[in-house]
Amino acid sequence: MLNESNGVFAASFVLPQAEADNSGRIGVPALAALCQEAAGRHAAAMGLGIADVLENNQAWFLLRMYLELERQPQAGQTLAIRTWPCRMKAGTTKRDFCLADSTGTPLGRATSLWAIVDLQTRHMLAAGPWLAEQVRQCPESVLAFPGRPRGGPEHDCTNRCTVLARRADLDVHGHVNNIRILEWGLEAVPGAVRDQRLASAVDIVFKQECRDGDRIQVAAGEPSPGYWHHTLEREQDGSTVAVMQTWWRTKDNFAS
Protein backbone atom coordinates (compact mmCIF):
# COMPACT_ATOMS: atom_id res chain seq x y z
CA MET A 1 0.00 0.00 0.00
CA LEU A 2 1.42 3.37 -1.05
CA ASN A 3 0.82 6.47 1.05
CA GLU A 4 0.54 9.12 -1.65
CA SER A 5 1.06 11.99 0.80
CA ASN A 6 4.64 11.13 1.69
CA GLY A 7 5.69 8.32 -0.65
CA VAL A 8 5.98 5.67 2.09
CA PHE A 9 5.04 2.13 1.06
CA ALA A 10 3.56 -0.35 3.57
CA ALA A 11 3.45 -4.13 3.23
CA SER A 12 2.55 -6.98 5.59
CA PHE A 13 3.78 -10.57 5.60
CA VAL A 14 2.95 -13.65 7.65
CA LEU A 15 6.34 -15.03 8.71
CA PRO A 16 6.70 -18.56 7.30
CA GLN A 17 7.55 -21.57 9.42
CA ALA A 18 10.01 -22.69 6.74
CA GLU A 19 12.26 -19.71 7.60
CA ALA A 20 12.32 -20.35 11.36
CA ASP A 21 15.38 -21.54 13.26
CA ASN A 22 15.33 -24.37 15.79
CA SER A 23 13.75 -22.05 18.37
CA GLY A 24 10.97 -20.94 16.02
CA ARG A 25 12.43 -17.46 15.48
CA ILE A 26 12.90 -15.71 12.15
CA GLY A 27 16.51 -14.67 11.56
CA VAL A 28 18.23 -11.78 9.83
CA PRO A 29 18.44 -13.32 6.31
CA ALA A 30 14.69 -13.97 6.07
CA LEU A 31 13.87 -10.49 7.40
CA ALA A 32 16.32 -8.91 4.96
CA ALA A 33 14.63 -10.84 2.14
CA LEU A 34 11.21 -9.50 3.16
CA CYS A 35 12.58 -5.96 3.26
CA GLN A 36 13.75 -6.44 -0.31
CA GLU A 37 10.36 -7.86 -1.28
CA ALA A 38 8.69 -4.73 0.11
CA ALA A 39 11.19 -2.56 -1.78
CA GLY A 40 10.43 -4.45 -4.99
CA ARG A 41 6.70 -3.96 -4.56
CA HIS A 42 7.21 -0.25 -3.96
CA ALA A 43 9.42 0.07 -7.03
CA ALA A 44 6.78 -1.73 -9.10
CA ALA A 45 4.09 0.65 -7.79
CA MET A 46 6.27 3.53 -9.02
CA GLY A 47 6.76 1.92 -12.44
CA LEU A 48 10.37 0.95 -11.66
CA GLY A 49 9.96 -2.71 -10.73
CA ILE A 50 12.07 -5.63 -11.96
CA ALA A 51 9.94 -6.15 -15.08
CA ASP A 52 9.87 -2.42 -15.85
CA VAL A 53 13.63 -1.88 -15.83
CA LEU A 54 14.29 -5.22 -17.56
CA GLU A 55 12.48 -3.83 -20.60
CA ASN A 56 15.51 -1.53 -20.98
CA ASN A 57 17.98 -4.33 -20.16
CA GLN A 58 18.56 -2.83 -16.72
CA ALA A 59 18.29 -4.08 -13.16
CA TRP A 60 18.34 -2.89 -9.58
CA PHE A 61 21.51 -4.11 -7.81
CA LEU A 62 21.84 -4.03 -4.04
CA LEU A 63 25.20 -2.54 -3.02
CA ARG A 64 24.90 -2.51 0.77
CA MET A 65 22.37 -3.35 3.47
CA TYR A 66 22.34 -2.77 7.22
CA LEU A 67 19.63 -4.32 9.39
CA GLU A 68 19.35 -4.01 13.17
CA LEU A 69 16.77 -5.79 15.32
CA GLU A 70 15.30 -4.86 18.68
CA ARG A 71 13.34 -8.11 18.89
CA GLN A 72 13.34 -11.27 16.81
CA PRO A 73 9.86 -12.34 15.69
CA GLN A 74 8.42 -15.84 15.73
CA ALA A 75 7.13 -17.83 12.77
CA GLY A 76 3.41 -17.30 12.23
CA GLN A 77 3.47 -13.69 13.39
CA THR A 78 2.63 -10.82 11.05
CA LEU A 79 5.47 -8.52 10.03
CA ALA A 80 4.62 -4.98 8.93
CA ILE A 81 7.24 -3.13 6.86
CA ARG A 82 7.26 0.55 5.92
CA THR A 83 9.80 1.58 3.29
CA TRP A 84 10.76 4.61 1.24
CA PRO A 85 13.68 5.96 -0.84
CA CYS A 86 15.31 8.72 1.16
CA ARG A 87 18.40 9.94 -0.68
CA MET A 88 20.06 9.90 -4.09
CA LYS A 89 23.79 10.44 -4.51
CA ALA A 90 26.39 9.56 -7.15
CA GLY A 91 24.01 7.30 -9.06
CA THR A 92 22.83 5.40 -5.98
CA THR A 93 19.54 5.44 -4.09
CA LYS A 94 19.33 4.97 -0.32
CA ARG A 95 16.20 3.20 0.93
CA ASP A 96 15.08 2.80 4.55
CA PHE A 97 12.79 0.32 6.29
CA CYS A 98 10.91 0.21 9.59
CA LEU A 99 9.81 -3.22 10.85
CA ALA A 100 6.99 -3.76 13.35
CA ASP A 101 4.65 -6.48 14.56
CA SER A 102 0.88 -6.53 13.99
CA THR A 103 0.31 -4.19 16.96
CA GLY A 104 2.75 -1.60 15.63
CA THR A 105 5.43 -2.40 18.20
CA PRO A 106 8.85 -1.84 16.58
CA LEU A 107 10.96 -4.88 15.74
CA GLY A 108 13.85 -3.21 13.95
CA ARG A 109 15.10 -0.88 11.24
CA ALA A 110 17.15 -1.21 8.08
CA THR A 111 18.80 0.91 5.45
CA SER A 112 20.13 -0.04 2.03
CA LEU A 113 21.96 1.32 -1.00
CA TRP A 114 20.85 0.49 -4.55
CA ALA A 115 21.90 1.24 -8.11
CA ILE A 116 20.31 0.75 -11.51
CA VAL A 117 22.77 -1.23 -13.64
CA ASP A 118 23.03 -1.80 -17.39
CA LEU A 119 22.92 -5.60 -17.71
CA GLN A 120 25.15 -5.63 -20.79
CA THR A 121 27.97 -3.39 -19.54
CA ARG A 122 27.38 -4.03 -15.81
CA HIS A 123 27.88 -0.29 -15.24
CA MET A 124 25.75 1.86 -12.93
CA LEU A 125 23.33 4.29 -14.54
CA ALA A 126 21.99 7.60 -13.31
CA ALA A 127 18.43 7.39 -11.98
CA GLY A 128 15.84 9.40 -13.87
CA PRO A 129 14.43 12.77 -12.74
CA TRP A 130 11.06 11.21 -11.89
CA LEU A 131 12.65 9.05 -9.17
CA ALA A 132 14.49 12.10 -7.85
CA GLU A 133 11.15 13.87 -7.49
CA GLN A 134 9.72 10.88 -5.60
CA VAL A 135 12.67 10.92 -3.20
CA ARG A 136 12.15 14.62 -2.48
CA GLN A 137 8.60 13.83 -1.31
CA CYS A 138 9.67 11.05 1.07
CA PRO A 139 10.75 11.30 4.73
CA GLU A 140 14.37 11.68 5.74
CA SER A 141 16.52 8.67 6.52
CA VAL A 142 15.96 7.10 9.94
CA LEU A 143 19.14 5.00 10.07
CA ALA A 144 22.77 5.61 9.14
CA PHE A 145 25.20 2.97 7.96
CA PRO A 146 27.75 1.99 10.61
CA GLY A 147 31.47 2.43 10.02
CA ARG A 148 33.17 0.00 7.69
CA PRO A 149 33.99 -3.45 9.11
CA ARG A 150 36.74 -3.45 11.73
CA GLY A 151 39.41 -6.07 12.06
CA GLY A 152 42.14 -7.27 9.77
CA PRO A 153 43.57 -10.45 8.27
CA GLU A 154 44.56 -11.78 11.69
CA HIS A 155 40.85 -12.02 12.52
CA ASP A 156 39.70 -13.33 9.15
CA CYS A 157 41.36 -16.74 9.41
CA THR A 158 39.86 -17.77 12.74
CA ASN A 159 36.90 -19.66 11.28
CA ARG A 160 36.52 -20.78 7.67
CA CYS A 161 34.21 -22.71 5.39
CA THR A 162 33.77 -23.18 1.64
CA VAL A 163 30.48 -22.81 -0.23
CA LEU A 164 29.70 -23.88 -3.80
CA ALA A 165 27.30 -21.64 -5.72
CA ARG A 166 24.50 -23.70 -7.27
CA ARG A 167 21.98 -22.97 -10.00
CA ALA A 168 19.31 -22.93 -7.29
CA ASP A 169 21.08 -19.90 -5.77
CA LEU A 170 20.74 -17.77 -8.92
CA ASP A 171 18.19 -15.01 -9.40
CA VAL A 172 16.50 -13.63 -12.51
CA HIS A 173 19.69 -11.74 -13.45
CA GLY A 174 21.81 -14.90 -13.56
CA HIS A 175 23.93 -14.20 -10.48
CA VAL A 176 23.68 -15.51 -6.93
CA ASN A 177 20.87 -13.90 -4.95
CA ASN A 178 22.26 -11.49 -2.36
CA ILE A 179 20.38 -13.20 0.48
CA ARG A 180 22.25 -16.43 -0.27
CA ILE A 181 25.54 -14.51 0.06
CA LEU A 182 24.40 -13.12 3.41
CA GLU A 183 23.54 -16.64 4.58
CA TRP A 184 26.95 -17.91 3.46
CA GLY A 185 28.68 -15.20 5.46
CA LEU A 186 26.96 -16.39 8.63
CA GLU A 187 27.99 -20.01 8.02
CA ALA A 188 31.55 -19.36 9.21
CA VAL A 189 30.37 -18.40 12.71
CA PRO A 190 30.89 -21.51 14.88
CA GLY A 191 27.88 -23.54 15.92
CA ALA A 192 28.82 -23.12 19.58
CA VAL A 193 28.35 -19.36 19.20
CA ARG A 194 25.08 -19.69 17.30
CA ASP A 195 23.72 -22.08 19.92
CA GLN A 196 24.04 -19.34 22.54
CA ARG A 197 23.63 -16.14 20.55
CA LEU A 198 21.51 -14.61 17.79
CA ALA A 199 22.58 -12.09 15.18
CA SER A 200 20.96 -8.81 16.21
CA ALA A 201 22.45 -6.71 13.40
CA VAL A 202 24.22 -7.26 10.09
CA ASP A 203 25.97 -4.89 7.70
CA ILE A 204 26.93 -6.37 4.32
CA VAL A 205 28.70 -4.71 1.39
CA PHE A 206 28.46 -6.48 -1.97
CA LYS A 207 31.64 -6.13 -4.05
CA GLN A 208 31.23 -8.46 -7.03
CA GLU A 209 28.69 -10.74 -8.61
CA CYS A 210 28.84 -14.46 -7.91
CA ARG A 211 28.01 -17.06 -10.58
CA ASP A 212 26.93 -20.68 -10.80
CA GLY A 213 29.86 -22.96 -9.97
CA ASP A 214 31.90 -20.36 -8.07
CA ARG A 215 33.58 -21.68 -4.94
CA ILE A 216 33.43 -19.10 -2.16
CA GLN A 217 35.85 -19.08 0.76
CA VAL A 218 34.11 -17.64 3.81
CA ALA A 219 36.18 -16.41 6.75
CA ALA A 220 34.96 -14.94 10.03
CA GLY A 221 36.64 -13.67 13.16
CA GLU A 222 35.63 -11.98 16.41
CA PRO A 223 37.81 -8.88 16.99
CA SER A 224 35.76 -8.00 20.08
CA PRO A 225 33.11 -9.88 22.09
CA GLY A 226 29.83 -10.12 20.20
CA TYR A 227 31.23 -8.41 17.08
CA TRP A 228 32.21 -10.49 14.04
CA HIS A 229 33.98 -9.55 10.82
CA HIS A 230 33.37 -11.67 7.69
CA THR A 231 34.92 -11.86 4.23
CA LEU A 232 33.73 -13.87 1.23
CA GLU A 233 36.27 -14.48 -1.53
CA ARG A 234 36.04 -16.31 -4.84
CA GLU A 235 38.42 -19.27 -4.70
CA GLN A 236 39.18 -19.19 -8.43
CA ASP A 237 40.74 -15.71 -8.48
CA GLY A 238 40.86 -14.51 -4.86
CA SER A 239 38.54 -11.59 -5.55
CA THR A 240 36.30 -10.32 -2.74
CA VAL A 241 32.60 -10.99 -3.32
CA ALA A 242 31.35 -9.36 -0.09
CA VAL A 243 32.42 -8.14 3.33
CA MET A 244 30.18 -8.25 6.40
CA GLN A 245 30.08 -7.27 10.02
CA THR A 246 27.61 -8.73 12.49
CA TRP A 247 26.62 -8.12 16.09
CA TRP A 248 25.39 -10.95 18.33
CA ARG A 249 23.36 -11.01 21.54
CA THR A 250 22.66 -13.86 23.91
CA LYS A 251 19.32 -15.53 23.34
CA ASP A 252 18.23 -14.74 26.90
CA ASN A 253 18.72 -11.01 26.24
CA PHE A 254 16.99 -11.01 22.86
CA ALA A 255 13.25 -10.75 23.44
CA SER A 256 10.82 -12.11 20.87
From TrEMBL:
The keyword Electron transport does not apply. InterPro entries: Acyl-ACP_TE_C, Acyl-ACP_thioesterase_NHD, FATA/B, HotDog_dom_sf. Residues 8-124 form the Acyl-ACP thioesterase N-terminal hotdog domain. Keywords: Fatty acid biosynthesis, Fatty acid metabolism, Hydrolase, Lipid biosynthesis, Lipid metabolism, Transit peptide. GO terms for molecular function: acyl carrier activity; fatty acyl-[ACP] hydrolase activity. The keyword Lipid biosynthesis applies. Residues 165-249 form the Acyl-ACP thioesterase-like C-terminal domain. It comes from the Bacteria. Belongs to the acyl-ACP thioesterase family. This is Acyl-ACP thioesterase.
